[in-house]
Amino acid sequence: MGNVYSEYLSSSKVKEHYNYTKENLDTKETPSRQVASALIIVLCCAIVVENLLVLIAVARNSKFHSAMYLFLGNLAASDLLAGVAFIANTLLSGSVTLGLTPVQWFAREGSAFITLSASVFSLLAIAIERHVAIAKVKLYGSDKSCRMLLLIAASWLISLVLGGLPILGWNCLGHLEACSTVLPLYAKPYVLCVVTIFSVILSAIVALYIRIYCVVRSSQADVAGPQTLALLKTVTIVLGVFIFCWLPAFSILLLDYACPVRACPVLYQAHYFFAFATLNSLLNPVIYTWRSRDLRREVLRPLQCWRRAAGVQGGRDGTPGHRLLPLRSSSSLERGTHMPTSPTFLEGNTMV
Questions:
Q1: Could you give the angle at the alpha carbon of 10 between the alpha carbons of 7 and 12, nearest 5°?
Q2: Which is nearest to 126 in space by CA: 337, 289, 249, 297?
Q3: Helical H runs in 169-278?
Q4: Burial of residue 297 (number of CB atoms within 10 Å: 0-12, 13-18, 19+)
Q5: 81, 199, 204, 229: most buried by Cβ count inside 10 Å?
Q6: Comparing C-alpha atoms, which of 172, 27, 37, 162 is closest to residue 102?
Q7: Residue burial 184-207, b: 16+ Cβ < 10 Å; e: rest
Q8: Shortest CA distance to 117 belongs to which of 169, 178, 195?
Q9: Residues 70-84: pLDDT tens digits?
Q10: CA-to-CA distance for 320 and 83, rounded, in angstroms?
Q11: Apex 119 CA angle, 301 and 47, nearest 5
C-alpha cells in the first residue's frame, strides 16, 4: 500500500495509464477543441451565475428561510460548485492532462464527482421533503431545523467520501488491467459502485414522486385543489430532466465497466456525456424556482436593480428611470388557497 501512495507524485503515471487505455493520445489543441472548451466554460459560468442568484435570493429574504427553500439553497450551492469544478476540469484537460501527477488527477476528477454527487443527493433530499410535506401533510417547525441541517451535512459527507475513495486507495495504480477506459486511474469496480449508488438514488426519487403523484390524485378537493396540476407538472419536469440528463452518463459508465480495454471506441467520447449531464445543474434552478413567482422575483431582483441604476443614469440624460416593483407575497403555485402565506404555511402548501 505504501508503494501505491509513493506513486501519487510521479509525473509519468498518468501518461502510462492513458497509454494503456487509449488507442490514440492525440492531445493537440485543435480549433474545434478550443471552441468546445470555450462553450463548456461559458455554460459553466452560466451555471455559477444562475445558482449564485438563487443563493442570494434565499439568503436575503426571510420568507425563504423554511425547509423547502433551505434544501433548494443546498441544491443551488452544490450545482454552483459543480459548475466551478467542471470549469477547472476543462482547463486541466487536453494537453495539460499528461503533465499531471496522480494526486492532481484525483483532485481534478474527485472534485467533479463530489459536487455532482452532492447535487444528486440534494435532489433526493428535496424529494424526501416533498413526500413528508405532501404525502404525510407534516410541517417543519423550528424544532426540526437541526434535522434538516443534519440531512444536508450527511449528503455532503457522503459525497466527500464517495468522491474521495480513489485518492484514499480505491484506484488502479499498479493494476493497469483493472483500469477504467473513461477514467484511466479509476478502478472499474469503483466506477460500477458509483453507477449503482446513483441508480439507487434515482430509483428512490422515482418511487417518492410516484407516491406523491398517487396521494395527490387520491386527495379530496380541499387538499388537491389548483395546486394539483402545478405539482404534477413540476414532478414531470423534474423527473424527466433528471433522467434525460443523467441516463447517458450512467450508460457510458456501465459500458465502460463491461468493455475490455480499447474494445469500445465510443468510450473515448465520454466527455460529451458528462458535459451533457452537467446541464442538470443548469436546469435545476429553473425547474425549482420558476414555479414560484416569489422566488423568481427575488432571483431577478439584482438584475432589476441593475436596470434601475441604468434607468436612473438614463434619467439624468433625459430618459425617465424605472422604479423597482416590490416583492409580492403571492406565488403562482399558491393560487387557489386562502391560507396565510407565512413561511410555515408556505412550506406545507406550496407545490414545488
A1: 120
A2: 289
A3: 188-218, 227-258, 270-277
A4: middle
A5: 81
A6: 172
A7: bbbbbebbbebbeebeebbeebee
A8: 195
A9: 888 898 899 999 999
A10: 38
A11: 40
